[in-house]
Protein backbone atom coordinates (compact mmCIF):
# COMPACT_ATOMS: atom_id res chain seq x y z
CA UNK A 1 0.00 0.00 0.00
CA UNK A 2 -0.65 2.27 -1.69
CA UNK A 3 -0.68 1.17 -5.31
CA UNK A 4 1.02 3.16 -8.05
CA UNK A 5 -2.37 3.88 -9.65
CA UNK A 6 -3.75 5.33 -6.41
CA UNK A 7 -0.59 7.42 -5.89
CA UNK A 8 -0.94 8.86 -9.39
CA UNK A 9 -4.66 9.51 -8.90
CA UNK A 10 -4.09 11.35 -5.60
CA UNK A 11 -1.40 13.48 -7.22
CA UNK A 12 -3.66 14.38 -10.16
CA UNK A 13 -6.56 15.30 -7.85
CA UNK A 14 -4.36 17.44 -5.61
CA UNK A 15 -4.93 20.69 -7.49
CA UNK A 16 -6.55 23.82 -6.12
CA UNK A 17 -9.19 25.32 -8.47
CA UNK A 18 -7.53 28.28 -10.17
CA UNK A 19 -10.29 30.77 -9.38
CA UNK A 20 -10.16 30.22 -5.60
CA UNK A 21 -7.51 31.60 -3.26
CA UNK A 22 -6.21 29.67 -0.26
CA UNK A 23 -3.75 30.23 2.57
CA UNK A 24 -0.06 29.40 2.44
CA UNK A 25 -0.62 26.28 4.55
CA UNK A 26 -3.06 24.79 2.02
CA UNK A 27 -0.81 25.82 -0.87
CA UNK A 28 1.87 23.68 0.79
CA UNK A 29 -0.49 20.70 0.86
CA UNK A 30 -1.39 21.24 -2.81
CA UNK A 31 2.31 21.08 -3.68
CA UNK A 32 2.73 17.55 -2.28
CA UNK A 33 2.86 14.63 -4.69
CA UNK A 34 2.77 10.84 -4.53
CA UNK A 35 4.49 9.36 -1.52
CA UNK A 36 5.02 12.78 0.12
CA UNK A 37 1.26 13.32 0.13
CA UNK A 38 0.58 9.91 1.71
CA UNK A 39 3.30 10.47 4.35
CA UNK A 40 1.85 13.89 5.13
CA UNK A 41 -1.56 12.31 5.64
CA UNK A 42 -0.26 9.62 8.01
CA UNK A 43 2.05 11.98 9.90
CA UNK A 44 -0.31 14.94 10.39
CA UNK A 45 -3.94 13.98 9.76
CA UNK A 46 -4.71 10.27 10.17
CA UNK A 47 -6.10 9.36 13.60
CA UNK A 48 -5.29 5.64 13.57
CA UNK A 49 -2.28 3.82 12.19
CA UNK A 50 -3.98 1.33 9.90
CA UNK A 51 -6.29 3.63 7.93
CA UNK A 52 -5.76 4.11 4.22
CA UNK A 53 -6.12 7.30 2.21
CA UNK A 54 -8.50 6.51 -0.66
CA UNK A 55 -9.54 9.81 -2.25
CA UNK A 56 -8.64 13.50 -2.30
CA UNK A 57 -10.75 16.42 -3.50
CA UNK A 58 -10.55 20.22 -3.33
CA UNK A 59 -13.91 21.85 -2.75
CA UNK A 60 -15.65 24.81 -1.15
CA UNK A 61 -17.45 23.72 2.01
CA UNK A 62 -20.24 25.08 4.23
CA UNK A 63 -20.92 24.11 7.83
CA UNK A 64 -24.40 23.96 9.34
CA UNK A 65 -23.31 26.14 12.27
CA UNK A 66 -21.79 28.79 9.96
CA UNK A 67 -24.10 28.79 6.91
CA UNK A 68 -22.87 32.13 5.56
CA UNK A 69 -19.15 31.31 5.48
CA UNK A 70 -18.00 29.37 2.42
CA UNK A 71 -14.41 28.21 2.82
CA UNK A 72 -11.96 26.30 0.68
CA UNK A 73 -11.00 22.84 1.94
CA UNK A 74 -8.91 19.84 1.00
CA UNK A 75 -11.28 16.90 1.53
CA UNK A 76 -9.52 13.63 2.33
CA UNK A 77 -11.43 10.35 2.40
CA UNK A 78 -9.88 7.45 4.26
CA UNK A 79 -11.14 4.04 5.34
CA UNK A 80 -12.03 5.50 8.77
CA UNK A 81 -13.15 9.10 8.31
CA UNK A 82 -13.64 12.16 6.11
CA UNK A 83 -11.16 14.92 6.88
CA UNK A 84 -11.70 18.57 5.94
CA UNK A 85 -8.40 20.45 5.97
CA UNK A 86 -9.50 24.07 6.21
CA UNK A 87 -8.06 27.46 5.46
CA UNK A 88 -6.88 29.05 8.71
CA UNK A 89 -8.83 32.24 7.89
CA UNK A 90 -12.07 30.34 8.57
CA UNK A 91 -11.31 29.85 12.26
CA UNK A 92 -11.86 33.53 13.01
CA UNK A 93 -14.14 34.35 10.07
CA UNK A 94 -17.26 34.23 12.20
CA UNK A 95 -16.66 35.38 15.77
CA UNK A 96 -20.23 34.51 16.79
CA UNK A 97 -19.52 30.82 16.34
CA UNK A 98 -16.53 30.73 18.68
CA UNK A 99 -17.90 27.69 20.47
CA UNK A 100 -17.77 25.69 17.24
CA UNK A 101 -13.98 25.74 17.17
CA UNK A 102 -11.74 25.38 20.19
CA UNK A 103 -9.55 28.49 20.04
CA UNK A 104 -8.00 28.38 23.50
CA UNK A 105 -4.53 27.31 22.43
CA UNK A 106 -4.39 29.14 19.10
CA UNK A 107 -1.94 32.06 18.98
CA UNK A 108 -2.17 33.60 15.50
CA UNK A 109 -0.04 36.71 16.00
CA UNK A 110 3.07 35.10 17.47
CA UNK A 111 3.03 31.99 15.35
CA UNK A 112 5.98 31.47 13.01
CA UNK A 113 4.11 28.88 10.96
CA UNK A 114 0.82 28.83 9.08
CA UNK A 115 -1.95 26.99 10.87
CA UNK A 116 -4.61 24.82 9.31
CA UNK A 117 -7.69 23.51 11.08
CA UNK A 118 -8.86 19.96 10.41
CA UNK A 119 -12.49 18.94 10.88
CA UNK A 120 -13.04 15.18 11.22
CA UNK A 121 -16.25 13.28 10.47
CA UNK A 122 -15.88 9.59 11.32
CA UNK A 123 -17.56 7.19 8.91
CA UNK A 124 -19.23 5.41 11.83
CA UNK A 125 -21.02 8.68 12.66
CA UNK A 126 -22.26 9.19 9.11
CA UNK A 127 -26.05 8.93 8.73
CA UNK A 128 -27.01 10.31 5.32
CA UNK A 129 -25.72 11.97 2.17
CA UNK A 130 -28.01 14.36 0.27
CA UNK A 131 -27.02 14.94 -3.35
CA UNK A 132 -28.01 18.35 -4.74
CA UNK A 133 -29.75 19.11 -8.02
CA UNK A 134 -27.78 17.97 -11.07
CA UNK A 135 -24.93 16.78 -8.80
CA UNK A 136 -23.64 20.32 -8.25
CA UNK A 137 -23.14 19.75 -4.51
CA UNK A 138 -23.75 17.21 -1.74
CA UNK A 139 -24.44 17.41 1.98
CA UNK A 140 -22.97 14.99 4.53
CA UNK A 141 -25.02 14.56 7.72
CA UNK A 142 -23.85 13.09 11.01
CA UNK A 143 -25.65 12.80 14.35
CA UNK A 144 -25.68 16.48 15.37
CA UNK A 145 -25.61 20.03 14.01
CA UNK A 146 -21.82 20.02 14.38
CA UNK A 147 -21.61 17.13 11.92
CA UNK A 148 -23.35 18.59 8.86
CA UNK A 149 -21.13 19.72 5.99
CA UNK A 150 -21.98 20.66 2.42
CA UNK A 151 -19.35 20.27 -0.31
CA UNK A 152 -19.97 22.75 -3.12
CA UNK A 153 -18.09 20.96 -5.88
CA UNK A 154 -19.96 22.90 -8.62
CA UNK A 155 -19.00 19.95 -10.76
CA UNK A 156 -21.05 16.81 -11.40
CA UNK A 157 -17.96 14.69 -12.14
CA UNK A 158 -16.29 15.51 -8.80
CA UNK A 159 -19.54 14.86 -6.95
CA UNK A 160 -20.09 11.53 -8.69
CA UNK A 161 -16.49 10.40 -8.10
CA UNK A 162 -16.57 11.25 -4.39
CA UNK A 163 -19.92 9.50 -3.86
CA UNK A 164 -18.61 6.36 -5.59
CA UNK A 165 -15.44 6.35 -3.47
CA UNK A 166 -17.47 6.96 -0.30
CA UNK A 167 -19.78 4.03 -1.07
CA UNK A 168 -16.77 1.78 -1.67
CA UNK A 169 -15.19 2.76 1.66
CA UNK A 170 -18.49 2.35 3.55
CA UNK A 171 -18.73 -1.20 2.21
CA UNK A 172 -15.67 -2.04 4.33
CA UNK A 173 -17.38 -0.99 7.57
CA UNK A 174 -18.63 -3.72 9.87
CA UNK A 175 -22.04 -2.63 11.13
CA UNK A 176 -24.82 -4.64 12.70
CA UNK A 177 -27.40 -5.26 9.97
CA UNK A 178 -30.86 -3.76 10.37
CA UNK A 179 -33.61 -6.30 11.15
CA UNK A 180 -35.07 -7.90 8.03
CA UNK A 181 -38.83 -7.56 7.32
CA UNK A 182 -40.85 -10.73 7.88
CA UNK A 183 -42.23 -11.07 4.34
CA UNK A 184 -39.64 -9.51 2.09
CA UNK A 185 -40.83 -9.00 -1.46
CA UNK A 186 -37.98 -7.93 -3.75
CA UNK A 187 -40.10 -5.87 -6.13
CA UNK A 188 -42.10 -3.98 -3.49
CA UNK A 189 -38.95 -3.42 -1.42
CA UNK A 190 -37.07 -2.04 -4.41
CA UNK A 191 -40.04 0.15 -5.39
CA UNK A 192 -40.42 1.55 -1.90
CA UNK A 193 -36.84 2.65 -1.71
CA UNK A 194 -36.72 4.20 -5.15
CA UNK A 195 -39.99 6.11 -4.66
CA UNK A 196 -38.15 8.92 -2.90
CA UNK A 197 -34.88 8.37 -4.78
CA UNK A 198 -33.42 7.10 -1.52
CA UNK A 199 -30.75 4.43 -1.62
CA UNK A 200 -29.96 2.67 1.65
CA UNK A 201 -26.37 1.45 1.56
CA UNK A 202 -25.34 -1.83 3.16
CA UNK A 203 -23.67 0.24 5.89
CA UNK A 204 -27.17 1.73 6.61
CA UNK A 205 -26.07 5.17 5.39
CA UNK A 206 -28.83 6.78 3.31
CA UNK A 207 -27.98 8.32 -0.06
CA UNK A 208 -30.81 10.69 -0.96
CA UNK A 209 -31.16 12.06 -4.48
CA UNK A 210 -33.45 14.87 -5.69
CA UNK A 211 -36.82 13.74 -6.98
CA UNK A 212 -39.09 15.31 -9.58
CA UNK A 213 -40.92 17.29 -6.90
CA UNK A 214 -37.82 19.39 -6.26
CA UNK A 215 -37.65 20.38 -9.92
CA UNK A 216 -41.38 21.07 -9.84
CA UNK A 217 -41.05 23.28 -6.76
CA UNK A 218 -38.19 25.15 -8.38
CA UNK A 219 -40.17 25.62 -11.60
CA UNK A 220 -43.14 26.95 -9.60
CA UNK A 221 -40.86 29.40 -7.75
CA UNK A 222 -39.33 30.60 -11.02
CA UNK A 223 -42.80 30.98 -12.55
CA UNK A 224 -43.79 33.27 -9.68
CA UNK A 225 -40.91 35.59 -10.56
CA UNK A 226 -41.80 35.76 -14.25
CA UNK A 227 -44.26 38.40 -15.42
CA UNK A 228 -47.36 37.25 -17.26
CA UNK A 229 -46.62 33.54 -17.16
CA UNK A 230 -49.80 31.66 -16.41
CA UNK A 231 -49.08 28.24 -17.86
CA UNK A 232 -46.64 26.38 -15.63
CA UNK A 233 -46.65 23.41 -18.01
CA UNK A 234 -44.89 25.48 -20.69
CA UNK A 235 -42.05 26.44 -18.33
CA UNK A 236 -38.88 24.42 -18.80
CA UNK A 237 -35.76 24.85 -16.70
CA UNK A 238 -33.05 24.47 -19.32
CA UNK A 239 -30.02 24.95 -17.08
CA UNK A 240 -29.26 24.91 -13.35
CA UNK A 241 -25.67 25.62 -12.41
CA UNK A 242 -23.81 26.81 -9.32
CA UNK A 243 -21.37 29.58 -10.12
CA UNK A 244 -20.12 32.94 -8.96
CA UNK A 245 -21.13 36.49 -9.68
CA UNK A 246 -18.00 38.55 -10.22
CA UNK A 247 -17.83 41.96 -8.54
CA UNK A 248 -14.68 43.95 -9.17
CA UNK A 249 -13.28 45.67 -6.08
CA UNK A 250 -12.67 49.35 -6.75
CA UNK A 251 -9.60 51.09 -5.36
CA UNK A 252 -7.79 47.95 -4.29
CA UNK A 253 -4.02 47.69 -4.60
CA UNK A 254 -4.33 44.72 -6.90
CA UNK A 255 -6.88 44.15 -9.61
CA UNK A 256 -8.97 41.82 -7.47
CA UNK A 257 -12.50 40.61 -7.92
CA UNK A 258 -14.96 39.37 -5.33
CA UNK A 259 -16.70 36.09 -6.16
CA UNK A 260 -20.22 35.83 -4.76
CA UNK A 261 -21.77 32.34 -4.87
CA UNK A 262 -24.93 32.33 -6.98
CA UNK A 263 -27.28 29.78 -8.51
CA UNK A 264 -27.97 30.47 -12.19
CA UNK A 265 -31.24 29.21 -13.65
CA UNK A 266 -32.03 29.53 -17.34
CA UNK A 267 -35.52 29.11 -18.79
CA UNK A 268 -36.68 29.54 -22.38
CA UNK A 269 -37.58 33.16 -21.67
CA UNK A 270 -35.61 34.37 -18.64
CA UNK A 271 -32.24 34.25 -16.90
CA UNK A 272 -32.24 34.23 -13.08
CA UNK A 273 -29.65 34.51 -10.32
CA UNK A 274 -30.66 33.10 -6.94
CA UNK A 275 -29.06 33.09 -3.50
CA UNK A 276 -29.53 29.47 -2.47
CA UNK A 277 -29.30 27.87 0.96
CA UNK A 278 -27.19 24.76 0.31
CA UNK A 279 -26.88 23.57 3.91
CA UNK A 280 -30.27 23.86 5.70
CA UNK A 281 -32.52 21.88 3.35
CA UNK A 282 -33.85 19.25 3.64
CA UNK A 283 -34.33 19.89 7.36
CA UNK A 284 -32.21 17.62 9.62
CA UNK A 285 -34.18 15.39 11.98
CA UNK A 286 -32.95 17.24 15.09
CA UNK A 287 -33.94 20.71 13.78
CA UNK A 288 -36.56 22.26 16.06
CA UNK A 289 -37.48 25.19 13.83
CA UNK A 290 -37.33 25.99 10.11
CA UNK A 291 -34.29 27.86 8.73
CA UNK A 292 -34.27 31.65 8.95
CA UNK A 293 -34.26 32.07 5.18
CA UNK A 294 -35.91 30.41 2.21
CA UNK A 295 -34.02 27.89 0.12
CA UNK A 296 -34.11 30.19 -2.93
CA UNK A 297 -33.96 33.99 -2.80
CA UNK A 298 -34.11 35.91 -6.06
CA UNK A 299 -31.03 38.11 -6.57
CA UNK A 300 -31.60 39.16 -10.20
CA UNK A 301 -33.75 38.23 -13.17
CA UNK A 302 -33.70 39.37 -16.81
CA UNK A 303 -35.62 38.50 -19.95
CA UNK A 304 -33.72 36.71 -22.70
CA UNK A 305 -35.35 39.02 -25.27
CA UNK A 306 -33.46 41.91 -23.60
CA UNK A 307 -30.10 40.14 -23.90
CA UNK A 308 -27.92 42.20 -26.22
CA UNK A 309 -24.67 40.22 -26.23
CA UNK A 310 -22.59 37.70 -24.30
CA UNK A 311 -18.88 38.39 -23.76
CA UNK A 312 -16.59 35.42 -23.23
CA UNK A 313 -13.11 35.55 -21.74
CA UNK A 314 -10.22 33.64 -23.27
CA UNK A 315 -8.99 31.99 -20.10
CA UNK A 316 -9.31 28.26 -19.55
CA UNK A 317 -11.92 26.68 -17.29
CA UNK A 318 -13.63 28.09 -15.32
CA UNK A 319 -14.95 30.35 -18.04
CA UNK A 320 -16.09 33.91 -17.30
CA UNK A 321 -19.24 35.09 -19.06
CA UNK A 322 -20.55 38.66 -19.17
CA UNK A 323 -24.22 39.11 -20.03
CA UNK A 324 -25.09 42.54 -21.43
CA UNK A 325 -28.81 43.39 -21.31
CA UNK A 326 -30.52 46.17 -23.22
CA UNK A 327 -33.52 46.74 -20.99
CA UNK A 328 -34.76 50.25 -20.12
CA UNK A 329 -36.53 50.24 -16.76
CA UNK A 330 -37.74 46.73 -17.69
CA UNK A 331 -40.21 48.41 -20.10
CA UNK A 332 -41.32 46.77 -23.32
CA UNK A 333 -40.81 49.71 -25.68
CA UNK A 334 -42.51 48.19 -28.72
CA UNK A 335 -45.67 47.49 -26.80
CA UNK A 336 -45.87 51.03 -25.41
CA UNK A 337 -45.21 52.63 -28.80
CA UNK A 338 -47.96 50.53 -30.35
CA UNK A 339 -50.47 51.61 -27.71
CA UNK A 340 -49.54 55.29 -28.12
CA UNK A 341 -49.78 55.19 -31.91
CA UNK A 342 -53.05 53.34 -32.29
CA UNK A 343 -54.90 54.87 -29.35
CA UNK A 344 -56.77 52.32 -27.30
Automatic annotation (TrEMBL):
It is found in: Cytoplasm. InterPro entries: PH_domain-containing_M2, PH_NISCH_C, PH_PLEKHM2. Keywords: Cytoplasm. This is NISCH protein. The keyword Cytoplasm applies. GO terms for cellular component: endosome membrane. One of its GO terms (biological process) is Golgi organization. Residues 115-178 form the PLEKHM2 PH domain. GO terms for molecular function: kinesin binding. Residues 237-343 form the Nischarin C-terminal PH domain. It comes from Lophotis ruficrista.
Amino acid sequence: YPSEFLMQKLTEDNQIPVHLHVSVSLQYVAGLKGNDLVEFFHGNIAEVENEELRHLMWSSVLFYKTPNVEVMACVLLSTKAIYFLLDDSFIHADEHQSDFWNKENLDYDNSSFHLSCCFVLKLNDLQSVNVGLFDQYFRITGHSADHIVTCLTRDSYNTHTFIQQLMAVLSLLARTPSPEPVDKDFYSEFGRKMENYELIHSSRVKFIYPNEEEIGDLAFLVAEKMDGLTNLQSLNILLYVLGFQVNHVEGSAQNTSLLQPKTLILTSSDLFLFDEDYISYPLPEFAKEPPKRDKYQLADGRRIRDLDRVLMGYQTYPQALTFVFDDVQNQDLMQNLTLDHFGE
